[in-house]
Amino acid sequence: MRLPPSTLPSLHWLQQHTAGLLRLLYPPQCLGCGASVSEAHVPLCAPCVRRLERPDPEAVLAHVRQLPGGEPVASAQALWAFDTGGVVQRVQHSLKYGNRPAQGRTLGRWMRHLFPAAHTGERLVVPIPLHRTRQLERGYNQSALLAEGLADALGASYQEALQRTRATASQTRLSRKQRQANVADAFAARSPQTLTGATIYLIDDVLTTGATLTAAAAALHTAEVAAVHVATLAFARS
Ligand SMILES: [Zn+2]
């Protein structure tokens, strides 16, 4: 049977309604508990967020400063304590491998609570860069998504102020000492003259030993920045 043309949905109609239909068929879900959430860019429902633990900033900073070379870090904070097998690990995994950039930026916006409006002057939000090869493989840098969202929420500038000078091995199986050696001199400041005097918010997804962040902070200090404050989504005490 042939339907008269007027009863067939037009391409325009389909385009207009596909997003709505998809939301009906696959409502966006909380990564923590599976409850439906209002928008696809929201990774967790409000009750799940309320249950997560905020690490004590003093403890995070003390942890980073245990590292030789950790002194140039002015403050260190994380939004949530890492929970192996738990909600934060699921969120972090999705951020790193799930290719959902809008969710990554939302997480970055949530990190604004780590920064009271105490810092004045030029504030630059800087992501830890991935090595070019790794970024090409994955297609995006999860720390850059966080930094973009945070910069947007704070009304600060986003700047890719660091580059990797060499590829580094995955840190996962390395000891604290090996991690430090692995990332030593792995970063350099890009256009250092644009960084002089700026307050830097240095952003990564997970803080473990702090070796990556302190190596990156040292590179930023060669550009005579005013201070480097580090913040991550999760703190996995090592
Ligand atoms: Zn939930």
Uncertain segments: none
Share of helical residues = 25-40%
How do the strands line up in the largest sheet?
1-7-6-2-3
Shape estimate: globular
| Count of individual helical segments | 9
Question: How are helices and strands ordered from N to C?
Answer: HHHEHHEHHEEHEEHE
Report the β-strand fraction as a percent range: 15-25%
Which molecules are bound in this entry? zinc ion
Task: Tell me the Rg in angstroms.
Answer: 21 Å
- How many distinct beta strands? 7
Annotated CATH topology of the largest domain: Rossmann fold
Amino-to-carboxy terminus distance? 68 Å
How would you concisely characterize the structure shown here?
The protein is α/β, with parallel strands linked by helices. It has 9 helices and 7 strands.
Molecular structure report:
The chain is of the alpha/beta class. It has two domains: 11-51, no CATH class; 52-235, Rossmann fold (3-Layer(aba) Sandwich), CATH 3.40.50. The strands form two sheets. Strands 1-7-6-2-3 form a five-stranded parallel beta sheet. Helix 5 crosses helix 7 (142-154). It contains nine helices and seven strands, in the order H-H-H-E-H-H-E-H-H-E-E-H-E-E-H-E. Bound molecules: zinc ion. Zinc ion binds at residues 30, 32-33, 35, 44-45, 47-48.
Comma- or semicolon-separated keywords:
238 residues, alpha/beta, Rossmann fold, 2 domains, two-stranded antiparallel ribbon, 7 strands, 38% helix, binds zinc ion
Write the topology of this structure.
Elements: H1 11-25, H2 46-51, H3 57-65, E1 73-81, H4 87-97, H5 101-110, E2 123-127, H6 132-138, H7 142-154, E3 157-158, E4 162-164, H8 176-183, E5 187-189, E6 199-207, H9 211-221, E7 227-235
Parallel strand pairs: 1-7, 2-3, 2-6, 6-7
Antiparallel strand pairs: 4-5
The structure holds zinc ion (ZN).
